[in-house]
Amino acid sequence: MASITVVTVPDGDRTPLLQPEYSGGGTEYSSTQSSEEPPPKNSNGPKQRLVSLDVFRGITVSLMILVDDAGKAFPSINHAPWFGVTLADFVMPFFLFGVGVSISLVFKKVVNRLAATKKVLFRSTKLFLLGVILQGGYFHGRDNLTYGVDVEKIRVMGVLQRIAIGYLLASVLEIWLVNNTVVNSAVAFVKRYSFQIGAGILVGVLYMVLLYGLHVPNWAFEISSLSTILPTSLGANSQTCGLRGSLEPPCNAVGLIDRILLGEKHLYQRPVYRRTKECSVNSPDYGPLPPNSPAWCLAPFDPEGILSSLMAAITCFVGLHYGHVLVHCKGHMQRIFFWLVSSLPLLILGYLLNILGVPYSKPLYTLSYMFITAGASGVLMTIIYFIVDVKCIRKPSVIFQWMGMNALVVYALAACDIFPAIVQGFYWRSQENNLVDLSERLLQSIFHSEKWGTLAFVVLEIVFWGAVAGFLHMKRIYLKL
Questions:
Q1: Is residue 366 classed as helix, strand or coil in its secondary structure?
Q2: What is the spatial distance between Cα 443 and Cα 452, in angstroms, rounded to a whole number?
Q3: Pairing between β-strand 238-239 and β-strand 219-220 as defined by DSSP bridges
Q4: Which of 77, 218, 257, 276: CA 20 to 30 A from 457?
């Protein structure tokens, strides 16, 4: 069973959310990989705190809160209904990228590979189980104050589950697939991590072969009781497919594999494609189904499915590369140069693949989507690193730094609606008369706008959690798995 441990430790020795923990490591890195390599010119000591990674993680969690809670008011920042990419679609890749960077720092020196692997397996399992508890359906969130889930219908996959898979695969690569080559040139750098590069290519090829090669037969489904949007005209709950290589919602291999391995009842019951034009009169927002809606509009689909999680793991591998640059390069500007040089091809490849017919799709985690979001992750990390760790301009981003240090707390209590649901449990006469809803309605009244009032509420929510994280930081309390 997953557990959360409260640890009080000296400053700089902590393990926030999504940062692998091994031998007590925090977001610190030695400036040298081995005794043969000199320390960076800009290093002030044997170890430096990578504050930019905390800020990057804090911005990612804040962005998740923003798009989740303000996405209803501003559908344009919410997840793309199926094809395309929006602000919300960068959150998951940012998480995965940060995991990869952290892994490269934590496992830069591994004394006992078996012990390290055992610890990775144990931590991955705890993270996966925590994800099932938080996102499996037990907690119903702000709009439903009840709780509990039928285990026959519990959702298996989710955000933390996908991160657990990416963490596991990337950690295994970092522990077992690194050559002993001393990095003194670009060629030596590639040689040292050549097996990791090969493994990443193999995972990508496996994904592409299954996505485009699997035959998707006709299939039937049950309309879930969670479906609150009823169709005006809906055919039989069956779908005609019988083809290969489709990227459309009803007949793709990602959904096929999940239906076979997980079972239809254990998938997400309100998928994002319910906001497509075929399935919503309010597209790109949720809404009633238009006349003659296709049957698949009410079919389940998991946006963090098994096959798409394989491609998502490659984003972790990309993060590994950026961490390797951090470990081996000698100066700040040298690191920034190689990071930007690495990001540009990813962005170009993602753009070209989209033009050539491989559309951006977060639910499928297509190759173009992986490239464009991984490249954007690298660019954002580079910008933050330059501002925070090179120029040491940290005061404007301190709230994100605090949130990054205790991201697990913020994610579980805020992004998963645990804290708002608890607060809403205390109300006056009617469930709508609770502190959370009353605060949001008050701001909507002040701004004379439902949309802008909601946005102001979400901004205050982020500031609140920044203050909570800051309080925990001052007390040197950090929660970890």
A1: coil
A2: 8
A3: antiparallel
A4: 276
